[in-house]
Structure formats: structure tokens, C-alpha cells
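Input for the complex:
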Amino acid sequence: MDRARHLRNYDLHSWTGIALGFFVFIVAFSGSIALFDEELKTWEDPARRLAPVETPIAIDGEFRAFLAEQQDEGELTSASLKFPDVIEPYYHGYAFINDADGQFHRHERRWNPENGDILPERGEGLSVWLLDFHRDLMWPDALGGRTIGRSLVGVVGVILMLAIFSGVIAHTKIFEELFSLRYWRSVRLKWQDTHKVAGLWGLPFFGMISATGAFLGIIAILSPIVAVLAFKGDTEALIEAVIGAPSEPAGIEAEMLPIDDFRTFVNPETGAMPARVLISHWGDEAATYNLLYHEDSELAAYDSITLSAVSGEEVANTQFDTKTPANRVTSAITPLHYGTFGGDYGSFSAIALKLVYLLLGLALAIITAMGNMMWIERRLHGNDGNKSEVFYRRLGRLTVGVTTGMAVGSLAIFYLDKLYFGAEAARMYWTGMTYFGAWFAVIFFALSQQNEYQTTRYVLIFTGIGLALLPILNGVMTGDFFWQAFTASGDRIFAWVDISFALVGGLTVWAAMSLPSRRPERKRKRAVAQTAAAAVPAE
Amino acid sequence: MSPIVIGIVVVVLAGIIAATVKAPRLTSVILWSLVATIFFTAALLLTAPGPFSEKALWITIANPFIWVGFQFWCYWDSNKWRVAGGLILLSVLSSIVVFATDPVI
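Predicted:
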């Protein structure tokens, strides 16, 4: 590659990192935490900390009553029931309603699998925020709604793909750089080597996560655009042409088979039990129960069997049964992106895979932040750049504030979750306010400090201590201390979450204490002194 | 169309033209690569042979790669005007295909 092209490619890599590095960091960091949204649900809500039940109580009566109650509001378009499992040990029903004004509503209810009691309602907050902030940035309706947010996250995927591609092209000695870590040299070299080594070793994962993220994100905006161009704006026609026409109701009332009859409907191909059932046309002769099974033999989100809800016979479902090559690829994208293909749901291997994803996701966030810091370091202590020192120092402090502040913002909403005392309907609002409040507070703190190294240490130590104390707060507020979970027969997922907090908190404090409190100048001065000495002509 | 809307459109178009003339690579990587991707994939969807649903899924999967490919070309090519011109030309040709072809429904 000629020098001009190499420089252009390097410019592209820097440009994508500097212009959108923060954005990539935000999506990567939030995604790392979002991996565990299901595991966090029982930690979040003490009412859901139930002992796994081998044979859950029949729920058909309660579920029918729930659907009937919702139908008073409008037309029931569909419903679903999730069966108890290891991670979420309770029944979880949904009803989707279209009211007289054409407004769409979603209602949900949870039942204790031991006695069928309704579990207390709790407003959405922590786990939903963590997942949705990653998926669509919780983009406000006033600015175009979640579709815009999701598309922006998709654009981050595209930018990351571009940064990865240009980064790989920029490296002319990839195999040498894979094993080159010069920790005893200058700050710049240390960061540069870490950026390269972590980036190159994690390349397959980073490539996969950016491509699948780009697909999941930009499909939200791409479908309407293609619909406008190719289908004259008819998005429904486009969806129908791609995944097949939805089934139509027969218009004849019919009695539904008890849903409990299907809880143990074993998938003849895999021997698995259904995880949930999707219900279409409830109360109609054409009603179906679409049984979804966690897929553990193929890279796909779910395996499914569709049965008539009237006769129990298997019926065709073009939307789920079609398995063309393109279908297989698209259905592999979500499990690949969220790391849900690690074996039986809730098993050790499944959790282990998520932990690998967590480490690689955090590595991606750190690589991005490090890329920014390297860019600034080159300009502050090198020959690059034409802006003032003040500008680069402020940019450095902003980078520290944005990156460490996001960790504090995420931590703050765990505390809010346990200390919140307001109305449940406003829980999500206060979750958002706390998240951004804590984040911006750290940004202002970082901007007000002179020494970015010291700021990073302080904020990370604060975050680590905060994380390590979360199990105590959880125990005090809910009465469930994690060590008690292993001597009782109740839910243990929350206890593992608590233990993880304590471990990660301790590791964060240790890592923060290991960081330098100021920019190491000694070696640089020595190098300068040596250079100066070498420059003195020998007499 | 109201004069205000016409005014906004004119200002936006003038801005895009000015940006393209001043910084063809940067404008191409931000804007023209996206426009070309949208029109090119829509044209591909309407004209490529094969069952529609399968084709639509493959093109959707390929979409981010096509976009990144165009973006990368913006900095790979030594001639900055070839990049901008190529992407604009591809967008125009693809849009002709899109608007000249009967809708799928």
C-alpha cells in the first residue's frame, strides 16, 4: 500500500474513532451490562425470588381470567404465556390489546407457580432501562421515538465495522503486533500496544458484534425506506412478502384447550419442553398455540411448533416454519449478538458464554476509550495536531468523564432500584433521571479536575466500592442476604448476582489502585535526557 | 408545497452541494455512501432474480456490508472526485431503476 493511501486509511480509522468513539463506547458498555437483563429481574424484584418448582400449579383459569379482564379494554390481538424456568421462576402472561381508538396496549401479569397467586406489580425500571438503553438509547418520543434510537445504534454498528476494517488495513505487521506488549516503555506505547493487541485478539468477536448490531439496528429504519421505494410505502406488504401472510381468524367462536396441557408438550425432535406459548386469535376457531422452545442444537433463538388451540393438532405456520438459508442466517443474528446460544437455558455453559461476551464487550469499550486517549496523547505530548494544549486537555477530561461516568450512572440506578420510594408508574422516569444525573455529575467533576489520571482512579475506586456494597444494600432493603440463599430452598439467582457485584467491585478497586495517579514522566525525561546526551557532539 | 418547506429544501441542497465541493471524501463517507446504499439495495431488490423473501433477507443482511464498503472506498480511492461522482452516479442510476420498475405489489 502506498504511503498516501496508508495515511488516508489511518485518517479514516482516527476519524471514526474520534468523531464517534464516545458513541461506540456507550453502546459497547451498555451492551455488556444488557447481556444480563434476565438474570437481573429476580435481583430487581424481591417478589420474584421464588424457589424453582418441579411441577408448577395449573394456570389456565388464572390466565383466562386475565385475558377476559383485558378484553374489556378492547380487542385482544395476541397473547403469550411464559412458563417458569430457572432464571425467571414464575408464570408471566402478556395480553396485547387494540382499544377503540386504535391505540395499542400491552398488559402483563405474573403468577407464583406454587399456588397461582398474582405477584405484586412493579413498575419497569433497572433491567428494562439497561436493555433498552443499549437497544434504542431510550430515545424519547418527542424526538422521533425508539425507531430513531435503534437506527442510531445500528449506525454505531456500521461505524464500528468501518473502524475495525480500516484498523486492520492500517496494521501492516498484524502477526508481530499480536504478541507485542511493551508495558515498560512510554505511556503512548503502552496504550498503543494494548489497543492493538486487545483489538486484534478480539477481532472475530468485534467483527461479529458490529455486523449483527448493525443488522439489528438499521433494519428498523431500512424496512420503512425500502417499503417506500419498492412497495410504495406499504410496510405491512413488505413484511408479508418477506415472512409470509399472518393467519386470519375464522370468525367462529370456539372453546380453547387448556393451556396447561401444552406446558409439557415435548418437542419430538429435541426432547425439550416449551419455554413460552404465543397465542393468536384467542377464542376463535382458527386460534393457535405457537410453542417456543429454547434452541440448543442450532444457532437460532427459538424452535417452534404451532398447534390448533381448538383441536391440538399441529398446523402449518409459514412465519416460523420456513427454514431457507437466508432465514437461518437472520434467525442466528439475535442469539449471536446477545450470546444466548451457550446451551440449556440457565445452565453453567450458558452463563459462562455470557461472561465471555461481557469480558469481550468491556474490552471493546476500553479499546475505544483507549483509542481516544491515544489520539489525545499524541497531540499533547507528540507532534500531531494543531489545536491548543487547553483544547486537548479538555478533550481528555471529557473522555474520562464520559467513560467513567457511564459506569457510575449504571451503578446509580442499581442503588435507585433498592432505595426508590415513589409511585411505580414513575420508576422508569426516575431511573433515567438518576442515570443521566450521575453520569453528568461525573462529567462535570472530570472537567473540573486538572489531573485525568487521578480522576480516573477516584471514580473507578468509587464505582468499585459502590458495586461491592450493593449486596449489603440488597440484603438490608429486601431481607435477602446472599449467603442465606445457599442454606434455604428459595431463588439463588439474586445471590449469584450479589456475589458477582462483590467480585467485580473488588476487581475494579484493585484495578483502579494499580493505575498511576499521574502521567509517568520519569522514563520520558530519561529518554529525553539520553537523546539530549546523544546530541552532544563527542569531543 | 409551502414556501417555507421549499426554502428549507433549497438551503439543505445548497449545503450538501457546498459540503460535497469543499470536502468530497467526508461528505461521501457521511452522506453519499448512505444514499447510494439505500437506492442500490432497493434497485437490487426489485431487479435481482429469485424468490422475493429470500432475496430481501439476503439483501438486508448484506446492507451494512455494502454501506461499509462504500464508506471504505471513499478513503481508499486516490481520486476524491471519483468517489463522490461514483456514489452520486450509482444513486441516480439506482433511483432510475427503482422509479422505472413496477412496485412489487
